[in-house]
Amino acid sequence: MSEGHPDLKQELERLSFTKAYMERLIDSQEIGQEALKKGQEDTLENLSFKDSSLRYQEMLSHANFMKMSKEQLESLQQLRKKPYFARIDFHRKEKPDRETFYIGKMSLFDRETQLPIILDWRSPLANVYYEGRIGEVSYEALGERYEGHVSLKRQYQIEEGNLENFRDIDLTTKDELLQDSLAQNAESRLTEIVSTIQEEQNRIIRADLRKPIIVQGAAGSGKTTIALHRISYFLYTMKEIFKPEDMLVLAPNRLFIQYISEVLPELGVQRAQQSTFIEFVQKATGIDWHVLTQHEVLMQTIEGNRDPQTLEFAAIKGSKFFKDLLNAYIRLLKKSYQVKEDFMFAGFRIKSAKSINRLFYDEYSYFPYEVRVKKIKSVLQSELRRKKKQILDKMAEKYDEELDRALYGMRNAEKRKIRVSFLITRKEERLAEIKKLSRTAVSRFMKQYPKLKLLEVYQELFNEEIFLSLHSEDSKVLRDMRAESRALFKKKHLQSEDLAGLLYLKTFLTGLHEDDQAKKVVIDEAQDYSFLEIFTLRKAFQTDLFTIVGDLAQGIYNYRGLKQWETLQEDVFSSANYLTLQKTYRTTIEIMNLANALLTLMPENLPKAEPVVRHGETPAFIRKEQGWEAKFLTLLQELLESGMKSFAIVTKSKKEADEVRGHLDSLQLGFEGLGEEQKEMANRVILPAYLAKGLEFDVVFLYSHFHPYTEDSLDLKMLYVAMTRPLHRLYMIGEKEEDFLLHRVSNDRFRKV
Ligand SMILES: Nc1ncnc2c1ncn2[C@@H]1O[C@H](COP(=O)(O)OP(=O)(O)OP(=O)(O)O)[C@@H](O)[C@H]1O
Prior knowledge:
Structural class: alpha/beta
Strand content: 15-25%
CATH topology of the largest domain: Rossmann fold
GO molecular function, one term: 3'-5' DNA helicase activity
Mean pLDDT: 88
Keywords: ATP-binding, Helicase, Hydrolase, Nucleotide-binding
GO cellular component, one term: cytosol
InterPro entries: DExx_box_DNA_helicase_dom_sf, DNA_helicase_UvrD/REP, HelD_bacillota, P-loop_NTPase, UvrD-like_ATP-bd, UvrD-like_helicase_C
Radius of gyration: 34 Å
Number of helices: 28
Bound molecules: adenosine-5'-triphosphate
Number of domains: 5
Number of strands: 26
Protein name: DNA helicase
């Protein structure tokens, strides 16, 4: 397409130069300076643009190559195949000329002049590229605002170092690079999207880094992807202050962590901590009791093996009510740190109880209780050390006075001798004794502070007397919750909703260990978090730097999870920016139209997702009748032939996943069942909808047997999650169309095969 383009020659030259510069830089790290000089001559010899681009020649031959870090070198080696993906021509107001900037995954500067050869996609100026406008623009860098004019925005397709194509974009052209990228097939992993980030996504990546953000985004709108790009942007912009290890990414399960972890190295943030909420709390508290996860509870409820009351208990333990209860409990615990007696030593007052309590309750009020106790201990130790000398002097003085009195006041020589020798020995003994006592005096005094054990303290909250002293209005459900919790604790089991309460208490009692601290937190699938979980995380990390992304329409743990984002804005992050992502990139218009029909059945009144223009086949219903397997086999074959790579069979329940796996095993199609703890994902998998959340596949077969989807709000959400997983094709295999609620959508949204 670029054949005959007036800029083709110039673009080819530019690419050759950039690659040559990168090669030189890489070589310079690997070989000596002498060999380098020779290499430079050879490079110049071979470059085709020798005559026209003197400036480039100059840059190459004069380059003063400095040592790079191992990481920089590795990135450079990777990038030489695709040094940049875009260009902008920008005329800054105060500058005489228009400048051209090439944008890539990493910046590259001319080592002599420090002028950019490639601009990092995260740099302030690159924002101009993503903001979408040709014409007058402005950008901010280091707090200053710059204005100027963008006259050209160009995208490049570079494969294996060769310029395949380039095209200019303006307001009317659609983003072909994006279309190409979306048409590709999933290889069971998430990728970086720096070359196709869209305007609404860019706004989220670059939203004020000092403020928390909450993002409501439709299924497939890029929430996970964008949250990870925001970390990359954050680390780039704040590299002086934050290290990747300071970041914590919270994801729903191990499988998901594996799925996203591959995108992290590409974004340069692989060292960020990644965990599930449960794992994080287990590590932070050191509690190793069995945790009954929300996933287990959900499955058991769907399959009818669990008393639905468990859901009510979970809801209570994640609620604002429970937070208030914990606060009342914490106030009670705090009282137990009050000391009654002054700190006395050898009859002297070292520090009064009042001033010790003042330290605990006022001066150190910012610290967790045990830290306060430690601090008080060291204050007492240093005060004692300071006063010990005076005490010893006073004691010695007292004995010396008595000695004087004995020496000069006693007439009887025998008695005087006995007295004097007694006093001398006593003095020595007493002083030695005081010295000895002083070593343990503080520790003895400190014994009156309570030693609270987290797990015990938490269990006591469910003790009838304590609970009712904190909350007198009792009810049956609260009584049942206490009884059920006590029964669980006896077996050394916890409900996953207990973890937030435990972490909350820990925050007050001891605070987090240094290794568990995070300075910036990303929460994916945030709709599944309870109010208390997010509130506690905020409290535990003492930071507002949260990126929270989720989709209420996918809130399958709605019984415990967030029902509206306003709750977070009102009660946790008052300064949060709330942003939405409405366009969806994952799937086709046809699939999204069907999924959108479900949205209208949900009570939340959520806006419909807008698929980015990409058509595909209409979703199909396959009746599960005699011989359906043969139909499935033929279909699979066709799909493979048409280039589809990843396939998932998604069920509502675990039982159905087991059943269909058993069924397909005999056909030896290589479909594997997936579990929550699974770390690898194959290309043909069978999994229940709750596990498929966040993931994507080329082709998805929904399979229903024992548990048809109903119009219950949980079912609607599970079906919505399942339907929005495919990139290209969606099939529904079941006995009746009603099993997928197809009777509630218009006939043209699906077909029957
Ligand atoms: N700007 C973009 N350019 C190319 N691909 C994109 C873009 N934005 C998103 N995608 C792709 O769309 C798909 C969905 O992205 P992602 O999984 O991040 O969405 P999500 O909102 O987290 O989805 P869900 O809520 O359904 O889990 C991914 O394949 C991602 O690579």
